[in-house]
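Our preliminary data section would be incomplete without showing what the modeling component actually yields. Below, a chain of 129 amino acids is followed by its predicted structure, encoded as tokens that our downstream tools consume directly.
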Amino acid sequence: MSDAPGPLSPHLQIYRWQVTSVLSILHRGSGLALAAAAPLYVIWLVGVALGDGSFRLVQSVYGSPPGQAVLAGCVLAGAYHLLNGLRHLLWDAGVGFGRAAVVRGGIAIAVGSVALTLLALVLTWLANG
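Predicted structure:
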């Protein structure tokens, strides 16, 4: 038997996953993803500043299938973080605290994030078509 004390609070395996906890974790994760992706924007700006050759190089990397997948993930993270941040502003105003409202809002944020991402991708595709 070990002399180490047991957990001081219930472990994560004991808790049931809830919409609020999942959305909170995703909000933090999307914020981290956006922070990690910020250098991609800086690289693009530096490519613009350095001239045509550098810009074409950056555009070719970002336009490749892996680059587009990363950028689509960035758009999804941004859409989710934006919509969930707006919900937090509503919560700060005292709106939407009921259990049903929280679940409906969470579903709306998930669907809205995917919809905004698809809209951005389609508009980008049409603009570059």
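Residues 7 and 52 are 59 Å apart (CA to CA). The chain has a mean pLDDT of 91. Preliminary results of this kind motivate Aim 1 of the renewal.
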